[in-house]
Amino acid sequence: MDFKPKRPQKELKYEELRIYTDEELHNYTEEELKDFKIKHDIPDLEELEKGPWPSFVADAKREALHRKKLPKDRMMIDQDVVDDLLGQLQLSFDDGETHWKHGGIVGVFGYGGGVIGRYSDVPEKYPSVAHFHTLRVNQPASKFYKTDFLRALCDLWEFRGSGMFNMHGSTGDIILLGTTTEQLEPLFYDLTHELDQDLGGSGSNLRTPSCCIGKARCEFACIDTQDLCYELTTHYQDELHRPAFPYKFKIKIDGCPNGCVASLARSDMALIGTWRDDIRIDQEAVQAYIRGEIQPNGGAHSGRDWGKFDIQKEVIDLCPTGCMVMEDGKLVINNQECNRCMHCINTMPRALRPGIDTGVSILFGAKAPILEGAQLAVLTVPFMKAEAPYDNIKELLEKVWDWWIEEGKNRERLGELIQRKGLPRFLEVIGVPAAPQMVKMPRTNPYIFWKEEDVPGGWKRDIKDYRLRHKR
Amino acid sequence: MALSQERLGKYNPEKPTENRITDIGPRHFWEFFPPVIQKNYGKWLYHDILEPGIMVHVSETGDKVFTVRCGGSRFMTAENIREICDIADKYCDGYVRFTTRNNIEFMVTSYEKVEALKKDLLSRKYISGSYKFPIGGTGAGVTNIVHTQGYIHCHTPATDASSMVKAIMDELMDYFTGMTLPAHVRISVACCLNMCGAVHCSDIALLGIHRKPPIVDDNIDSICEIPLAITACPVGAISPGKTEDGRKTVKIKEERCMFCGNCYTMCPALPIADKLGDGVAVLAGGKISNRISEPKFSKVIVPWLPNNFPRFPEVVATVKKIIEVYAAEARKYERIGDWAERIGWEKFFEKCELPFTEHLIDDYRLAYDTYRTSTQFKFTGAAWEVSRAAGGIDD
Q1: Do residue B37 and residue A373 have CB atoms under 8 angstroms apart?
Q2: What's one GO MF term for it (chain A) (predicted)?
């Protein structure tokens, strides 16, 4: 298996790209760091330097010192940006309220999103975060990196921005945290020309798709999550960069029902790997688990004594459909009754594997509470093959978009439109028949719509005819 | 090929569309895969967690890849990323990855390299004492907390994220570096009801909430699309109004407002944040995976705790208590939501010693489905209080 990008990728060498010299990168000593104070009093933040978990304050302070020791003309935004960010954060703790002004509309030409504008509401106190815009940079699928890329990005961002990041934003993007409006275009120029790398999405558009680690390092993966993620991202670049939707739209891709990228909760279109043939069983390995030679669940519970592995108690009795038994010392699965919850596979990964006839289940409409309440995604297509170039998935997605773009109200997520118009209407739009798999249970109320054409005689009736049979 | 070093670099503001490259998307993933990952792509047979934070994946080719997972603070600086790169260059041929919960993973191809890497990672501490790269986050423990911007970058938060996460993780460190729980516990933090991230589907979730209606600024007619502010309200508490001098404004029915802040998202003239009103709601029992039980929403179990910066002692104590009771009571493989549903929420409240108040009873649209329409319940102290109040018992 070998994946080739659709267009040649620029090979990145940090030594050729770099801005800072080694001396500039190692421009402070441990001693200096020990004695270093930022320019504001930050007692609460300094309290957060204590304790074992990595302290973002301690990290920020070394960046502040590093910037202070760089010559002023070696950074395009204020040298004190980290100091001022920490200072303003302390003020927010004191006041119990945020100190960022509402909103902010900035960006780069040609795109309608990708940059989140932000301005301080106390710029006189913290002038270097007066402008503090965020850029979303589209991460590589499942967030594998080569250090050449990361180092070059660090130089670029330290030179033209604050040097502060989020690795990563919840949607998946690399977040470059804080720069001025002036630097947005130069940043974008070098991102695209030198790093061969685009921005991610923001606004009422397709947001940056993301995926789990998939077949790169997981034996459960049923589909090529990265390839599908990359294909959808690059195929729908226009939808991602130029908002044309009623509201945001997210795509996430999980390789199996374990949901490591949480597509079912956090994307309007969730593509979740699954299979439709039998779970593969290695009976010898099942015996090894029973004999206690292999730890259950890959050893995930080894920090505590849960007793000897008991296949009946830990696997067979916990199966949600009760479709497993031990017969003559062999594990038997009635695959027709299996709902592919992953429990037995998770518990005995060396003995059980997903089937080989794989594809995706497609669920639509997950969202957070605003406006009409939180939603998990609704199972809509139980099974679809997912093989490059994924035309079937694209066709389905475009039918969904056509409908939602036409019918969706301002700031109405797909999930809310499905609620407003009903799941039956959604199925009609995408051209699939109703199936019991789409519901937890059939409706309990009898308020059933019928289409006129489905009822003999239609709906045009004359009261006079009725009265011939029924006197008033 | 080099990054530019002039003020505007190679960008020419006189001709903004000249030489513009667009729509190239992300870097292709394949070149960022380490060779062992490329070679064994799709061929993995099984994995084992050798110890907390350290996994081995075994391929049908016989190849193995060892992964060392470390906590990351999500907010990180170029200095931090460069240190990650130093480690990746030294041990991992220049490859590194991040997880969907913002941990950092270093991969090597032999166990000998794991030992050296592990030693190096644990030796790295900030001057003030915290670990830079604590190893853990695997198996049945507590891994990294998915969180949001808080006061660091957002305009609508009701609390801060980075500080709360640090305070909680400091306290739960043994669960990050150990695998002693019945199942994994996912904690997440969101600073407002927009719930960026995973708050609505986590084992334990902390959510910033307001408790006062917005203040209407008198310039609302000049800076807001008033109809957008009106339709932003989930409970129809906002209606158009006129000021005494005849300008357009909005009226807010205060008794109808539940302080979601969505009108402020749409309209800068309706600020809502308030030091004394704002705080943290605690939710529990959500999950995303389909393992055994179906995915679940998290449910509100504590309506409000104070924003006690910087260490949120009340929030931390509540989270710790829930985890300790869950650890002691739940069965193997049971997530917090599975456990709470099995024993009944009335027992959950009793065991976790959490007061139950009217704020926890749903009263939004589909609320009825959450009420108990059966006689199946367990007696706890709360039931006797109802009986006493209703006159049902004497003591």
Answers
A1: no
A2: sulfite reductase (ferredoxin) activity
